[in-house]
Amino acid sequence: MTQNVNDVLDEIKAKKMLGRQLFESIGSPTKIVAPMVDQSELAWRILSRRYGATLAYTPMFHAKLFATSEKYRRDMWCEIDGNPEIDRPLVVQFCANDPEYLLQAARLVQDKCDAVDLNLGCPQGIARKGRYGSFLMEDWDLIHKLIRQLHDNLDIPVTAKIRVFPEREKTLEYAKMVLDAGAQFLTVHGRLREQKGQKTGLADWEIVKYLRENLPVDTVFFGNGNILYPEDISRGIKHIKCDAIMSAEGNLYNPGIFNTHESEQKDDAFPRVDHVAREYFEIVRKYKESQASRIAMKSHMFKILRPLLPHHTDIRAALASLNAKTPFEEWEEKVIKAVESVVEAIFAQENIQELDQVVKGAVELWGGFYVTVPYWRCQPYFRPVNGVTADKRLTEGLKAQSESESNDNKRKAESALQRGNEKEVKV
């Protein structure tokens, strides 16, 4: 007798691991490579795992294109992606606004990953134009259908990554809806949709913490945002009480951000740019079948070498002249060996021990601290706006806010004292 459709669906749900069981089955990861457009591709995931990442997401794939275009799939995905020897645990992320195309795309990768994630956080203009990512935040019915389609019909679990609304209560209801639809992990990026590019600002850890405290205790919950240094990962987990922390831009400029063990070795947390560039290059060369890695290499090299390039503009010019079709031999000669030669000369200096110092600053108003790192080591990038970098804007803004609050409290205290004096006079 033919099985009832509902019975088949029940069997699928019974077989796949959900929630906390799924999280534990992949090793209870605490340090996660975020899904980034054209950036968290195979070679970068492999590198990041070597530096301490315990879970990685793919770049955001466009579900309809992935389902219908063989060329798009070939550019974004290859046989090595999701290989259990080098690329797991892995979550594949899609952006979508059509449940059927999303399911078709997810089925093409479900045997090569541990879960499929729905992107509900992309704030870029292309997401607005295509109506996906954070531009679905007002269409809760569609979001529910997208997640439920995968939850009911896919052989592996579905997860979701969201941004927050200005209102805490609305964000909490939104998160509950996403979980009700079937999401087994919830990643919360503590920024508004409008906080992007030069308006990025500081992620709101307090609203992320509020969600964690008010969602079911067994929810697998990841935090995202404000990760500059390895210490921020453990600080975020402790403050938010989340299961893991995800890093995007911090990881791109310094894969050592995931080296959170109790080590004072600066080579762990702030590796030399020549070492990282060589290691990443060799990974791309070894797994050259990954077209996505070849395409992403130039962008990654600019980020890895960012602190060094202003001091060696000849290397910057050479890097700018290369592309995905440039032979590996030319890449190695013009960039990798050139960087190695420069850093080798730096370390040949007699006073290198004095020069090669990583200095931690005082604790700032936002709870963390800044670190002064030599330009030959990987480090965070603070995007300047009108000549002022984000770290200085943030510090100045928080100081102004603190002074304003202090003045308000002072005025309230003086007002209360005045009212008290007036009462005494009346008596």
Features:
427 residues, alpha/beta, TIM Barrel, 8-stranded parallel barrel, two-stranded antiparallel sheet, 12 strands, 13% strand
For this structure, what is the CATH class of the largest domain?
Alpha Beta
Q: Strands of the largest sheet, in order across it?
A: 1-2-3-4-5-6-7-8
Ranges with pLDDT <50 over ≥5 residues?
A: 385-391
Mean pLDDT: 87
Output the CATH topology of the largest domain.
Answer: TIM Barrel
CATH superfamily annotation of the largest domain:
Aldolase class I
Instruction: Please compute the radius of gyration using only Cα atoms.
Output: 24 Å
Q: Any idea what the CATH architecture of the largest domain is?
A: Alpha-Beta Barrel
Distance between the termini: 92 Å
- CA-based shape: globular
Structural domain tally: 3
How many extended strands? 12
Structural class label: alpha/beta
**Count of DSSP-assigned helices:** 19
Your description of this structure?
Helices cover 49% and strands 13% of the residues. It is globular and about 75 Å long. The protein folds into three domains: 256 residues, TIM Barrel, CATH 3.20.20.70; 75 residues; 37 residues. About 2% of the residues have low confidence. It has 427 residues and is an alpha/beta fold.
